[in-house]
Amino acid sequence: MRILLSRIYVTILALAFLVTHSGWEERKPGLSVLLLMAAIFLCGLGALGRVWCSLHIAGRKQRELVTDGPYSLLRNPLYLFSFIGALGIGFSTGTLLFPAAVAVAFVLYYPGIIRKEEAEMERRHGEVFRLYRSSVPCFLPRVSGWREDVSLMVNPAVFRRHLSSALWFVWALALVILVEAAKHGGWLPVWFQVF
Length: 195
Hints:
Blueprint: H1 2-18, E1 20-22, H2 24-27, H3 29-57, H4 70-73, H5 77-91, H6 97-125, H7 127-135, H8 156-184, E2 192-194
Parallel strand pairs: 1-2
């Protein structure tokens, strides 16, 4: 259900983006450049972060409680890096409206998802998960908790799936830039200006 609702919300935002244009381009062109630079940085960080997380959970997630690498810093690093990458896509529109819409969606939706997932983890792993939850923050990293194994066993098939899901931030960024070029070229109608 989470994936379906996320796709519906993203579709609504994408349709809104198709018919809008950033008002900052004419009023504050320097801000547009800064927003694009932030978008590139955040999309790259989101993608790399998801790949890093995937290295640690690929093939292990269903068998054991993963508490090393990024999971030693916070309990939900995949969601954090997804949030960072999604903010990057929002900033790539050259507006503040779209990243704000992304932030609102995460704040309203993901705490419930995290609670449900953590209840399942507690059911599966019991006291081990309760100790992990009490010592590792949920969403904001605590660098002092860093731990990493010397080696990792990775399932290549699972990792490939995770890799393609991490790269969608880069692909979405490229698509937004192409749509913006189509708007500037007059190939797509622009009905509204947003900031």
